[in-house]
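Per reviewer request, we include the raw input and output of the structure prediction for the construct analysed in the revised manuscript.
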Amino acid sequence: MPHPGEPGRTLAQPAGQPLRACLQMSALYLLGGALSWAALRGTGWADPLWPAAGIALGMMVPDRPGRRVGLAIGSFLLSLAVLTLSGLTLPATLLGAAGVSLATTLQAQLGAQLVRRRLGPRPSLLRSGEILDFIALAGPLACLIGATVGVLTLLAAGVIPEAELERAWLTWWASDAIGVIVFAPLTLMALPSQRDLWRGRRRIVALPSLLVLAVTLVALLHASWLEQRELALRLKQRATLAEESLRRTLLAHEEALYGLQSLIQATGEPSPEEFSRYTTSHLKRLSGLHALSWNPEVPDQGRSSFEARQRQLPGRGGFRITERQRDGSFVAAGRRPTLVPVALIEPLNANRAALGFDIGSDPVRAATLHAARAAGSPKATPPIQLVQERGGQKGVLLILPIEAPRGYVVGVYRLGDLLKESFRDPAWRQFQLRLLESRPGREPGELARIPAAEAIAPSARSDANSLSRPLEVGGQAWRLEVTPTPSWGMDGLDSRSAWIPLVGLLISAPLEGFLLLTTGTERLRQAQLQRKLRTSLTAAAKAHEIKQPLARLLLQARAIQGLPKRSGLASPRDDQLSALAEGIVRDARQVSGALDGIRNLLGNDVPQLRPLDLREAVESALLVLKGDLELQAMTLETQGLEQPHPIEGDRNQLQLMVVNLMRNAIAATGPGGLLRLALRDSPLGVELDVEDDGPGFPQSMREIEALVLSSDKPEGMGIGLFLVKCAVENHQGTIELGRSPLGGARVVIGFPAVPSWRRSRQRAASMAQRRRSSRPTGNGRAAK
């Protein structure tokens, strides 16, 4: 591209510069994003504050090759790491990372282009319009595309559920906007190509900006703590309800076993019809109960007769007592002192494969039989593979012993069906429920699970996001784990918390704008003041240049005065020439004194303050202004010039101050106007009051500094006001601007009082001077 100021010249990029820019961009985004994610991952929100967005946009404003690619790479790697830690599948992780990278790059590119088109590649952010444009274009507007593309991609990848779409979009948009508004200016001021624009503003902007960020972060963390505490209480309540629900289900099942035990003890061994009638009602009511069976104890010597009786029952012609081999096939049971076959079971059709199975042939079941007989109460087997199981569910047997007739009533459970019965309410669809086997010293084994309506990443099953409750079922230790879905709690609590990042945006944007505007105004003020000072130095130099011809003019005037004396001749014409030369000398001295005053004022020299009468300086200034007042046909009213007003000051500076003050009033009032000048003593000293009937001062400018800086007169550039300000400061005076009763402007300048002892000495010196001036001279005429 053409070099600025040198058409036709092109800047060749060094070979390694794009690669270096790419690596720097990637590293900065990775660092900023990783720190933000690590600090805010515990808030419960998806990064409610994202400084990396501001870093990316700030780096992209100066269009440098390689930064766009570096941003895409850095964003992809960061998203890939975060999504991998979330436990997502590889396709979902890659799709989500690519979508986030695309959203981040498009957002930064769009924001940078909008800023460059509106404010140029080097935005100074000094004026209110520039600041508002930058905040609006780079922040809320550009972040719309990032939030939209990113959220839709994560939705397609299955990272976020549809129910959380609105909340996720709002959080993404607000967090990126906050990051851009706060960190983009900080990034710009740190770039070498932009540093000259931010000289003198870095610390003033950076420290309060970071303070605003810290306050926003503290507010987010505090709100997150309150939300997490309330969510934990609500989750605890839900876990307690889940435990109670499962316990009620298990109690109902135990009651069914005890009822069957009572029936058999009262009536003896039931017939298949009686057994079916009794169990049907329980099986219909308890959907988690897979089967109920009657398992008598059969001595080995009575085995043949037992099998014969069973074969006489309808549909049992091939009945025999069996056991299962390792390959799952059934064979005739081996010889044991006592067998415990399944004699009756309902529902029969679904469990016919279990008829005749000797549950005592399995060591696990046999141990449970002995435990139940010893305790006289129901005991549960560890998780087993049911004989009649055709799916993949794990099962358990709940075994209750009977003394007469001797045997056992058995409840058969598929654990998945048991959970479904306990949690049929649709409200539980917002939770993942897992039944775990507690194994001391080992990781709990999963017995059954009810998946939630939404996908839950493995990383979500943590102590902070799930709760488990212990259960004791027939001597077996289980745990019920309750894990909420990401959208659980969206009603009420989470719907309020979703607005926290938006509140942070509404707070940070005005504060950051105020900081930029304040420092920008100060920077402009300093620039204007420097312009005034440069002009004042130029005026001082010009005054020095004028002093030289004035000195020569004085010498020439004195030479004219001495001509008649050197020639020894005198004539009336010579007297006229001498009088003209005397006038030239007097005017030149007056101009020279005024130039000395200007040079001293603009050079910031400390004036020689001597006792004087302010009235005399004012009268001298009015003589200088007499021609201007007559030319403009203006009326001047004076007050307080009849009496002396002693102060300590510099006559030349005071006269110059009054001249410039009056000339400003004449210029503001215009032809035919009215001016009023008054001198008066005050408790603090002497006051000079100048009023006019012009338009007055602007409402927004009631300070002399504001008037000096706002002056844009092409002929004077505000130097007159600047001279007035300098003179007042050099005399330790005060200046007040206000509205005159005449309708125009009013300027009141106060000078400190002269101490009484010094005033007495000044009065005595003044009287002595008058006596000397009135003493007769040798030729009988008063000295002039």
